[in-house]
Write a structure and sequence with these properties.
By secondary structure, the protein is mainly alpha-helical. The protein has helices at 21-30, 36-64, 69-84; strands spanning 3-4, 7-9, 12-14, 17-18. The protein is built from three helices and four strands; from the N terminus they run E-E-E-E-H-H-H. The mean pLDDT is 84.
């Protein structure tokens, strides 16, 4: 894994740290000067990707725990009763 070299800056030793595979890919991308619209599209793609992963994870837990719409309704009612009391 590539790393950032250690530097001495104003008497402080800055330790080297490895770059992740995502950081390396993004550095490659940063060398490209994207138009504003393309940059916004990339941000949207990344946001959608991670949102979908979160939803898939939640769906997995939901299914493993055999939850249903009734479960959610019960939780909502419990929450409302705590707020009102």
């Amino acid at each position: 894994m590539p790393s950032i070299a250690s530097e001495k800056s104003k008497g402080t030793d800055v330790k080297a740290r490895a770059l992740s595979n995502v950081q390396m890919e993004l550095l490659k991308l940063y060398s490209t000067d994207l138009e504003s619209d393309d940059l916004m599209e990339l941000r949207t793609i990344l946001a959608n990707h991670f949102a979908q992963k979160a939803m898939n994870g939640a769906d997995t837990v939901w299914n493993q725990k055999d939850m249903s719409a009734d479960t959610m309704e019960t939780w909502l009612n419990e929450h409302e009763s705590k707020i009102c009391s």
